[in-house]
Amino acid sequence: MNFKENGVSYKHIPSKRFKTTLLSVTFYAPLDKNAAANALSVALMSKGTPEYADYYSFNRRLAGLYGASVTSSVSKTGDRQELNISLTVNDDKYSLGGEPTVSAAGQLLLDMLFGYYLSGKSYPKNAVTREKRLIKEAIMNRFNDKRVFARRRCEEIMCDGEAYGLSPNGTVEEVEALTDSDIRSGMTRLLKEAFISIVTVGAKEPTCFIEDFKKLITTVGRNYHALPEDVAKKASELKVTKEKMPVKQGKLVMGFRSEVGENLPESVKTWIMTDIFGGGPYSKLFCNVREKMSLCYYCAARGVRTKGLIFIESGVEKDNIESARTAILDQFQNIKNGQISESEINSSKLSLSDAFRSLAADQGSLASWYDARALSDNNLSPEDVVNAVEAVNYEDIIAAANTYSLDTVYILSPDEEAMKEDAE
Fold first, then answer.
1. Which of 224, 319, 333, 410 pairs as cysteine with 7 (C-beta 3.0–4.6 A)?
2. Which residues in 186-284 belong to E strands, given as ranges?
3. Is 359:369 a contact under the CB 8 Å cutoff?
């Protein structure tokens, strides 16, 4: 029954290795000023229905479905906001009396998605207050984890004026200001205008769930707005930002740009190049900058392929920041110059291939994989990508590296005066 029409995609992944069925619904929306309202709307959807409106009755209902579980998440995929609600439930054959647990769980998920919107009711005040608090805590938590904070600051500076520079949860002030009307608007945007990817994983396709979803989605009056394409830009004049905070360990984040934003399978060569640069324990940053030179506590590379971005994150002592910066650039130049060993290439291919093959062992990972494929209109399986990994050669890796240039450097160094005052 797989289909894709009017901004709604559905795919079932048959698998007999799990004793549960996963029902995953992901909304993709532009990452913009509506991010906070969208995030709060999905958080509330995932915590109740008009029939099970309070925390305890909703969780009792999940317990009645043999301990079914619901999760939700908000993140960003390039210039898009990604909002997911997933429900996992035991397959029917594992219920004690042969009850149709998957069908019942599917109906509960549909009530979560559509119940408040179609009924016109508002979410309970205490639920709104609770979810606002949790979202604000998630936003503020980045200040507690300085590694996350430094990376996000580099993203903000590097992508200032671009959607990717925004937080997928909005700001604390935006969340605090949200009203019932904003929540209603958020639900309307997601159900009417967003791209919706539905992925189910399990031994048997939950046909009742998807048939009922198709009926309900027609009642909201879909007016799908095509998502904006991710924009990859050429590196601009180098931006260097230095900030201080009362931290013991400095942070150095370096952002590289390529004007080539890639989708699968083309981006596989960039994945391998990035992994050789700063992936596993065989990578150049780990072996040289971290181990041989002892310039940092950690040093790793992370790519955002559709935006043509690579971020290098490292934890360094204040006195080693400039040395680490130079060493990182030297290692990247070595790749551009073709100083790549066969061992490095083979190790990276083996690591990435193992990672892709392992997706089949986790329902959530499988669902996320096919969610992303729905956006780009390719149906490559993880095994297809393994084959693409094997086909990448030495010249491909060098060519990928040479499309990237340094764009932004963010340095977070210890504020020794503030630390002394705190100690006193």
1. 224
2. 195-202, 239-245, 250-257
3. yes
